[in-house]
Fold these 2 entries.
Entry 1:
Amino acid sequence: MKIVFHILILITVSLSMTVPASCTGGYDRDLMEAERLLRHEMADSAMAILDRSEPEKMNSNDYACYILLLAQASFKQGHSYASDSLLYETARYFVKNGDKDRECLATLYTGMIRFSNNDLEGAAIRLKQAEHLLEYITDKYMHNKVYAALTALNYAVANDSLGLMYARKELASAIAMRDNVQLSFAYNHLACLYSRLGNRDSLMHYISAVEPLIPYMPRYARVQNLSNVGFYYQMLGDSVKGEEYIRQSYKTEPIVANSNLLAKIYFNRGDTASAMNIWRNALAAADAAGEAELRGAMARILYEAGKYKESGDNSTRADFLNDSLQLERKARKANVLQLDYDHRMSMEKARRNSRVAVAVLICVILGAAAIIIVIIAGSRHADAVKEDYKNRIDDLETDSSRLKKDMSRLKKELVDIEESKTRKAARGKELFDCLNAGGNIQLWTKADFDSFFSYYDIVDPDFRKRASATYRSLSRGNRLLLILSEMSFDNDSVCRIMGISPGSLRSARSRLRSKMCNGDCGVTLKES
């Protein structure tokens, strides 16, 4: 899981550096400044410029560039505010204008947004489309970013052979660019793949290749690579060297990854006070996304140490933060789509005004030939235009009212979903605490079982994946038996809780063993 997070972090950061070389043709100065800020890793400042822009007043070229910059800035901040469908429409605009570079870039980010939303199939389609555009593009940096994204995609779906192929292409393009930063990313991605394959020699080779490049990296890349190299050395069994690199990363700049790794080292050593101090400092400096990740890591480590209450509290908080972030992203996406609607309406209004101006000009020309006819025709035309405008205004007011009602209904549905989820988690915690206090399931309803299972997914987020990878078609009773075993209840306690005899318990476990998967049922790692 950590390796997935590390490779996706580096790929996300490296992708976020990609911006159009220049959006020529009436390109707004504010957008040029936002572009410059993105190149200098100042995404927050770039987003502030984009937020105060007025896209409804932009021409088509500026608007397409605005959408592309907005996608990059939000992605660079660790969010996906842009709509992938809207970005795909932007790519189609660049197709019409014959701009292959921006068509490829917009298509690439469409795939990365889908990837960040866990739509791996949709991401694969868009990223492959971007790859096939590379034959028209000479910019090796663009090649490097497309191959990096395809490396991440194939890593996420555990297609290691394709992952290695694209990682090597990424490496070749980085070598052609003579760019130490992109070279370090490529070496790191290959190390991730070989670590999962268990090839220690290749892992060591690529770690050694990354190490001499670290001093040449910008600060953000140096911090992450130091943390990754330390993690790899820990995997290889060299805990002393691993801790040394993690400490270097933490001293350079505390981030979520190195804070979690260093805190875990102290915690496993028994120095709980130092571990908690690192976590507290990291939580104080983290944004909502960082806090969610930190608390998730804390929950796992505390659970392994038997601190179930503290683990559950942190897991619940992490789940709440993730839900809030998801709601915020949906709201920002809704705002972007509304901006797009306003822009399209503005363009349509301009086209309508142009048609009216042409009609007026024709009337003036005809008026020179027949004044009386023109006056009559002009009067009728004016009445028709006014009636047409009145009808259009009425239509717009009706559409506006309908849109407001739809937005209100959607907001209410979101609130209802959040309240239902909170009630379910609270009920599950009551049942969980009841079992730990000596209770049983004799009076449980189907809804109680569902609430208990949902809460346990918060307490042990990896349980469902481990159970699904090890067993086939688990019934409600099978799943409860597995969870009770995970909670370390002895046989007598399990019999009491489930209301069954020891013989029935042995039979249940025998049936459960018969459902074990054949062959390799290893857990598949997922994106962070």
Entry 2:
Amino acid sequence: MSNSSAFLLRDILIRNDQLFPNNTAMFDGDVAITYRELFRRINRARAVLGYLGIRPGDRVGILMENNAAYIELLLAVAHMGSIAVPLNTRLTADELQFILNDAEASLLITSSAFKHLAEATYARLSSVTNGLIVDSDTPEGQFQSYKVVQAETEAAPKTLGGIGELSEDSTAILVYTSGTTGSPKGCMTTQRSWIGNSLNMAIAFSLSTEDRYLALLPFFHVGGLGALFAQLHAGGTVIPMAKYSATGVVQMIEKYRISVAFLVPPMVQQVLTLESREQYDLNSLRIVIGAAGFEPPWVSARVEDDLHAKFYGIYGQTESGNIVASATRNAIASSPSTYGRELPAFRVRIVDDSDEEVPVGSPGELTLRGPSVMSGYWRREEATRKALRGDWLHTGDIFVRHPDGTLEMVDRKTYIIKTGGENVYPAEVEHVLAAHPSVADVCVIGIPDPVWGETVKACIVLRLGHAPSRSELVSWCREHVAAYKAPRYIEWVEEIPRSHSGKPLKDVLKARPTHSTQGIAHLE
């Protein structure tokens, strides 16, 4: 049902077209695109999607690097009331196939950079009926050319993609995240989710029309999407960056006069220690957003002392709709493990296993309410009821609320591994390793890493008479899951310690020393 009082994603662009038509919305390479031109491009993208048969409610998979076309298509899909499914470009064809079939996507959009991966995925899909490639002048295999279809729609009588009856609760984007069982789940983020996130970020980080945001975090991440929409909502400028390098970041800051950068570990450290950094003029930089709890205290200090930008260490998750809490330099200096305080539009409770609030200073599960929280998991009613029971999102993370109101993470209830800004769920990797003919038993854990925050370690019991190399097992993993999920360390063990109920005692394994001889050289 339509709600005349609702403010939706498409209203951001309508508003900015009226208020800031000549402000630069984004850069397409070196070309500045105004909000008036962006609005025109979105309408053109809607025409292409409508021509291909996309209707309100249809799911559209996008497998691309960050670029201007990605932004246009995301906004066009949201404008029509269809549902975008941003795809992690680091996944394998098997993983992408599962997500697209689970979402029952009707269209797969890709770019030349991921054409081969898209082709390998497309061949296995049951629901996708069409493919589109954005940066080619000619159709390629199963993929029609975006440019050719644009020309056809412009030559024919214009029929924009239909606009569905939308409300704040209409799903706008399915952001897939792995579950503790290893099966990816689609977080249904609504029109309200993204508007709520935008307002939360605008208040927390004082975003304005003057800001220029370096869109380096990929748009398949909730953080990348959230910062993108927040900057557009503020009427500022977005500069997409397709591939990370520390040198590339400082070059982009100087060239485009970037004021806001969102960098995950170990990016901030690499930028700070870059030998050539002082050759670049970085005085436009106003804010650096990084990860709380994973960066050593010297990082926030050097961001502010060397780059003269304010540092915010943040905590968030996909289900929450992006950032939940942030910590300042002073808070981190006082307590390096702090996650700061929740953003203005969140309510937070720390609860026990009975969902009763625990006293201040006691550990419990972090639960929260707020406008950006997902509406549930796509077609997973039981998982949704569990995650949103009592009308609170249960994050699965164990936190303590201190007397001064700050939050500190104690442990991860679901043993998620966070490595270099990516989430790895041990069960997913365990399932892959367990399928190898040489593996009798396996347990995957996260161990501290000075560069990535955490890294993946597998403790493996081999079958009698088998003696595979560590590199062989890593290669096996990388055939089935993304490279960042594969273990960097493998320890041969005689048995996996387990509780009386059969659950692996991961804390016991984490307490064991990890020797360099257990490490595997990075495989390209």
